[in-house]
Design brief:
The protein is an all-alpha fold. About 65% of the residues lie in helices and about 0% in strands. The chain has a domain of about 90 residues. The radius of gyration is 20 Å and the shape is elongated.
Length: about 140
């Protein structure tokens, strides 16, 4: 699956915390490369999981010759694959959201308090949408 061309905001216009240097083109390009690489990998994984899940769904309808343990194992495996697929979909949505925020110039701004997230945090975790204090507050709930 090809990625659409990104019409990103200029690196220097992205939010940074007080005392941090502005984003350089190279830093933004690294984040973009990381996001696109991770996105491509997720799409491949999801396609493989979908094929696996399709096979499990076909097997689920055919109970002939299977004992209860086989049916239980197939059901468990199918549920596990569905859980993995949902997790991968969520991660893909986060990546797409980060790419959209780079496009519109809001990348690096906390979605909760509106303050800069911090360049080091988003470079370490490019999908971050919350500053550290907001993230900690969310996790305590």
């Amino acid at each position: 699956m090809k990625n659409a061309p990104v019409k990103k905001a200029p690196a220097s216009s992205l939010a940074v915390k007080e005392g941090e240097e502005r984003w350089s083109k190279q830093e933004l390009d690294e984040v973009l490369a990381d996001l696109h690489l991770h996105r491509d990998r997720l799409v491949e994984i999801m396609e493989a999981q979908e094929q696996e899940l399709n096979g499990l769904m076909k097997d689920a309808g055919d109970g002939a010759g299977h004992d209860q343990a086989d049916l239980g194992a197939t059901s468990f495996e199918r549920d596990h694959e569905l859980t993995l697929m949902n997790s991968e979909r969520e991660m893909l949505a986060q990546i797409d959201r980060a790419l959209a925020r780079i496009d519109d110039g809001t990348y690096g701004v906390c979605e909760s308090c509106g303050e800069p997230i911090g360049k080091m945090r988003v470079m370490a975790f490019p999908r971050a949408t919350l500053c550290l204090s907001c993230k900690q507050r969310e996790e305590r709930r």
